Amino acid sequence: MFPEGVTRRVAAANDPQLESCLEENVVPGQRLTDLDRWMERYQQADPDAPAALVGALSPALLRFFRSQVANREQADDLLQETWLRIHRVRRTYRPGEPVLPWIYAIARRVRVDGYRRTRRITLYEIAMEVLPQTPAQVKARNPAPAFNTLVAALPEAQREVLTMLKVGGLTLEEVARATSSTVGAVKQKAHRAYERLRKLLQVEAEGAKGAAQ
């Protein structure tokens, strides 16, 4: 349905181990270049367009949300809200422009709104003296995918940029547009993210080596 032509990504500084860890659980070879045309057809009320967009982008968007929130249920809710919001504001997309930055900008706003909503609920529950979940219940959840485990150690801004680049397949320019930033700032965040992950992997490898001796 979508032709070849995945957008270019930032290289992992020629680190095979880091690249392998980051590529695990990342959507392989997403065909994304025809999404702009599907978005235009969506605006024109093509009945096939919504399913095409949802099918092509939902896996990457879900991974984007999973890298930002604590559990799968929250990520699913944010994904659903994102598509509902895209439907409501679909007329604001400008035909001819890349659709990925537009979609990820909406996803970011949904995530921020979700965080604020969750925070309000949490503060209300504390005020009402509702006990939090026990640690045992939290540990009972399925472990996060390897990619989420890696990026969880990053600051939020770096985690967001790296997820857009590695999972969403956005270019540096598209990430800059989606985050209302500059290409230089995106490059810097991506570079710092790779450096931090490389150090964490090195520490983990040295720890495993020491334990084996």
Structure notes:
The chain is mostly helical. It contains ten helices and no strands. The longest helix has 30 residues, at 183-212. 30% of the residues are buried. Residues 1-14, 22-30 and 120-145 have low confidence and may be disordered.
Number of contiguous helices: 10
Assembly type: single chain
Strands, total number: 0
Please tell me the overall pLDDT. 74
Q: Which structural class best describes the helix and strand composition?
A: mainly alpha
Share of residues in strands: under 5%
Topology as H/E string?
HHHHHHHHHH
Shape: elongated
Distance between the termini: 52 Å
What low-confidence regions span 5 or more consecutive residues with pLDDT below 50?
Answer: 1-14, 22-30, 120-145
The residue fraction in helices comes out at 55-70%
Structural Rg: 19 Å
For the largest beta-sheet, the strand count, sense and barrel status come to: none
Give a quick set of tags describing it.
213 residues
Summed up, what is this model?
The protein has 213 residues and is mainly α. It has helices at residues 16-23, 35-43, 49-66, 72-89, 99-127, 135-139, 146-151, 156-166, 172-178, 183-212.
Topology:
Elements: H1 16-23, H2 35-43, H3 49-66, H4 72-89, H5 99-127, H6 135-139, H7 146-151, H8 156-166, H9 172-178, H10 183-212
Helix pairs in contact: 2-3, 3-4, 4-5, 5-9, 8-10, 9-10
